[in-house]
Design brief:
Methane Monooxygenase Hydroxylase, Chain G, domain 1, 3 helices, mainly alpha
């Protein structure tokens, strides 16, 4: 089985995701406590930026490891990895 491109950063990524999970729980608490809308929106924005940062890190790892290795090997796998990365980038841009 091929190791994921982020394997060297797995612990750091998990730590960031746990922090984001805490941010989401904080958002739930803010709504529960009837916090002012703009304050909640500010925290939603911060959480969104944090998720985008994780996504960009994962994309970078994918491009620099998985895609580069596939392109070096050539053939259909290279085409598939490039198409897969392009589709992932398109999804990120639309979100």
């Amino acid at each position: 089985m091929t190791m994921p491109g982020y394997i060297d950063e797995k612990a750091a990524i998990q730590k960031r995701l746990r922090r984001i999970e805490g941010q989401v729980r904080g958002l739930q608490r803010m709504v529960e406590e009837d916090t002012y809308c703009i304050n909640i929106l500010d925290q939603v924005s911060a959480t969104t930026r944090a998720l985008q940062a994780v996504a960009l890190e994962l994309l970078d790892d994918h491009l620099t490891r998985c895609v580069v290795n596939a392109v070096a090997a050539g053939g259909q796998e290279a085409d598939d990895k490039i198409n897969e990365a392009t589709a992932a980038i398109a999804r990120m841009v639309r979100s």
